[in-house]
Amino acid sequence: MEAMDFDLVIILSSALTILLCSMFSTSIFNYIPLNLGILPLFIGMLYGGYKTGLPLAGLCLLCDFIFNPNWTVLGLFLHTGLPLYPLLIWMSPKFRKGPLTEKINKLWLCLMPAMLLITAAPIIESPNLNLTDAGLVLIVLFYILTSMFTGGTLVYMIEFALEKLRLKEQVMGISEKYLREEEKLQQVIDATPISMVSVDHAGNITSINDTMMNLVKTKDPDLTKQDVLGYPVTMFVDIMGQDYINYRIVQALQGKKLGNELIRIGTHNYYISTSPLTNTHTGAIIGAVLAFQDVTELARLRSELENVERLSLVGQMAASITHEIRNPMAVVRGFLQLMKEKSPEALDHYYRIVMEELDRANGIINDFLSLAQNRIAEKEQWHLHTIISDLSPLLWADANLRGQTIELILDERVPELSLNAKEIKQLVLNLSRNGMEAMEEKGQLTIETRLNDSFVELIIKDTGMGIAKSRQERLFEPFFTTKAKGTGLGLALCLSIVERHHGKISVESEEGKGTAFTIQFPVSDSWAGMI
């Protein structure tokens, strides 16, 4: 209970008791006032201090004025213990912090003189009154002792109630902390990519995380955690693995920890480990925990990596072979030129076709070598607009031959970048010529640059026939092409160049409306001077 709530209880219960005691007050032999309202008043002032004590004191004085038929100013001081009020308020702060015996002693210290004043009030108010009867003295003494005992009992009961409240608050605080920690631990366990489940001595599930529930739901998608708790874990695994998991659980319940072992459940491969759960105080085994780690994707990636390594080796061999092919091709082309000079002009057409095909084969070999070698590009600080300006005459010449136009939209805010100028020229040239080949006469090719946050974007857009959605995902695959005579190496080479510049390339295309390739180059000084 909070301090404000306790003060409210003190003032309300004390006020009600003072009011009832005043209403039913009487006297001993019509002389000595009998009103136990002074007990809740003093207790309320000691526990509540001036905030509670002053309203209670006012109520006590008011009740004495209303319910005492023989009210006098002197009687007000004598019957209500008024002279002791300042002492009670002064003692209040230390009273609440002290132990039980000290509190009872302080109450008695204030209550004794107050009771003596009350019992002596008739003699003080009427000096001629004779109250020497032994029976009356014993009754008065009994009245005083009863009041003292009752006051001590009330303090004891209040302290007992407060102690229970404190214990209750402590228990609630510990419970809330435990629940919060349990929730955090469960969230952590649920977030882990490892499937975990704990079981009791009978092999029945006591807790399960979300990853394990996803595995369990492969048998029944409608299952919830509440559905599986209390049931054997083997009910929710493949029949082929039930005996093996039972064996692992039995071993764990006997105190044996079994490390990772590869098993197959359904279509997935898992590493499974089991450990006993023990009581931290007694060391007794109270259950077991099973952990499943799905390594299906890891196994697939490992297999793909092995394939990539084999393909890389094949690529290196092919690159070496194609490099050697270029030499005899150059010799063949040289001799063809000599033969052309000594042959009749009627054969020039055939010589031209052969040399064009040799040049085309040589171009394919160059593209393949650029793609296969995947060399590290040497970079310098270049402005993208300078590279585009250098290529503009060549691009305009190609466009004019096709009856097409080119539009340049260059953002002046674009900064210099760490680029390999030769490779960027090849990138722009490949994408631009692809766009031109995709357009008919009067088509327009747009080359645009713009600064976008931490990237410089290069957009090359055409107004051609567009690319079908089904083909867009495979555009950058080697040897995949949408052209009748394409090799499928151009865009793969573009992707390789962009990746060597730590950039990204994407495509947006709609059939009948054109295609746009967007390349993002990072704007960062960290790339400057990199090799």
UniProtKB/TrEMBL annotation:
Keyword list, A-Z: ATP-binding, Kinase, Membrane, Nucleotide-binding, Phosphoprotein, Transferase, Transmembrane, Transmembrane helix, Two-component regulatory system
Highest taxon above the source species: Bacteria
GO molecular function, one term: kinase activity
Bilayer-spanning residue ranges: 6-24, 70-92, 104-124, 136-158
SMART domains to which the protein is assigned, alphabetical: HATPase_c, HisKA
Ranges where the PAS domain occurs: 181-256
CDD domains for this protein: HisKA
InterPro entries: HATPase_C_sf (IPR036890), HATPase_dom (IPR003594), His_kinase_dom (IPR005467), HisK_dim/P_dom (IPR003661), HisK_dim/P_sf (IPR036097), PAS (IPR000014), PAS-like_dom_sf (IPR035965), Sig_transdc_His_kin-like_C (IPR004358)
EC number in record: 2.7.13.3
Chain ranges of the Histidine kinase domain: 320-525
Catalytic activity: ATP + protein L-histidine = ADP + protein N-phospho-L-histidine
Name of the molecule in the record: histidine kinase
